[in-house]
Amino acid sequence: MEQSLHMVKLAKAALEDKKAQNVKIIDIRNVSVLADYFIIADGSNPNQVQAMADSVEETLGKAGYACRQIEGYGTGGWILMDYGDIIVHAFNREDRLFYDLERIWRDGKFLEAEDLEAEN
User: Fold this and answer.
1) Which of 6, 51, 81, 95 lies 20 to 30 angstroms, CA to CA, from 74?
2) What total of structural domains would you count in the chain?
3) CA–CA separation, 24 and 6 (whole Å)
4) Residue 79 three-state SS
5) pLDDT digits (tens, 9 = 90+) for 61-96
6) DSSP labels for 13-56?
7) Kind of pairing, strands 86-92 and 37-43?
């Protein structure tokens, strides 16, 4: 399995473990050199958003993937976690609606659960 896709699956599971809502995965390999995938999820309050980020960092860290940079953790409104091949965006609901990354990155391919399994 491709390394970045493995990271996506781990991060998605970590987010869902903390009850993240509306988890979206966007394959941006054909539209950007920033990363291979974006993962976007939201929580209902800053504490949940921080817990989501903590879960991703712990899960990917145990698998041997180090986070290059984390931005926004202190406020819990939008936490960006850069893992090189993947970038995780954990939002509170209001900030997610305001920034609307899904619209900005609409040229990417939105993956569903069955797409992740088909990539194996």
Assistant:
1) 6
2) 1
3) 16
4) strand
5) 999 999 999 999 999 999 999 999 999 999 999 999
6) HHHHHTT-EEEEEEE-TTT-SS-SEEEEEEESSHHHHHHHHHHH
7) parallel
